[in-house]
Design goal:
This protein is mostly beta strands and about 220 residues long. The protein contains two helices and nine strands, in the order H-E-H-E-E-E-E-E-E-E-E. The protein has an eight-stranded antiparallel beta barrel with strand order 1-2-3-4-5-6-7-9. About 25% of the residues are buried.
């Protein structure tokens, strides 16, 4: 008899317990959702895309687009996420361009850069995270003909700006469309007319643009 009286009481008590329990928010639904922000993690980034430059080379060399046409670029970044909003690190790129109109069609046009950069993330605790990076470093360009001496141009990447929007496919992996550009200045050259790197007179600033796709992988850190 006591058992029969206890059953109706429990039937009222159990729903009350269910209502009192806090609901766990679903943080993984929807395209733009909350993700744990990462900090103190090592980051490896890889990007590839389209690149093209323009502007004066300085001296008597004419324009950058006369020797270097559009091309493809591969980039590797190494960084450390100091804060959820800030990453500091280094970058390196390798490019292969089409030859410009003023050089022989059998000439390979190759480029490379390397430098330091900082990346600011605007929404590090969401799956959609816009960011901006600013860097500076070294830049090289080589004109390698099928025969004869390779022309080498060496200089500085004065300022390198990139804009991207990360989308976190997992807590450790993000992909992003990226656009950007850099201002550079070549300061020395070694060509068929020289025996070593020689300073370029009347140095000029030129521009190189980039558009592509990047992926970033976080290693370790806290969330």
């Amino acid at each position: 008899m006591k058992t029969m009286k206890l059953i109706p009481a429990l039937s009222l008590f159990i729903p009350a317990i269910a209502v009192a329990q806090p609901e766990s928010p679903d943080t993984t639904t929807g395209f733009d959702h909350h993700v744990p922000a990462v900090q103190n993690a090592f980051e490896i980034g890889v990007a590839t895309g389209y690149t093209q430059g323009g502007g004066k080379l300085g001296g008597t060399m004419g324009n950058l687009e006369d020797v270097s046409g559009p091309g493809g670029v591969v980039e590797v970044d190494l960084g450390y996420r100091v804060l959820p909003y800030l990453s500091l690190g280094a970058y390196g790129t390798f490019s292969k361009y089409q030859h410009g109109d003023s050089i022989d069609s059998n000439t390979d046009v190759l480029g490379a850069t390397a430098g330091l950069q900082g990346v600011v993330h605007f929404r590090p605790d969401t799956s959609i995270d816009p960011w901006v990076s600013l860097g500076t470093g070294w830049k090289g360009l080589w004109l390698d003909p099928s025969s004869g001496k390779t022309t080498s141009l060496q200089g500085l990447e004065l300022a390198r700006l990139q804009l991207g929007v990360d989308y976190r496919v997992s807590k450790d992996v993000a992909i992003a469309p990226v656009i950007g550009g850099s201002l550079s200045m070549f300061i020395s050259q070694d060509s068929a007319m020289t025996t070593d790197l020689t300073e370029i007179t009347d140095k000029k600033v030129n521009f190189t643009g980039f558009a592509g796709l990047a992926g970033r992988f976080d290693i370790g850190g806290s969330r």
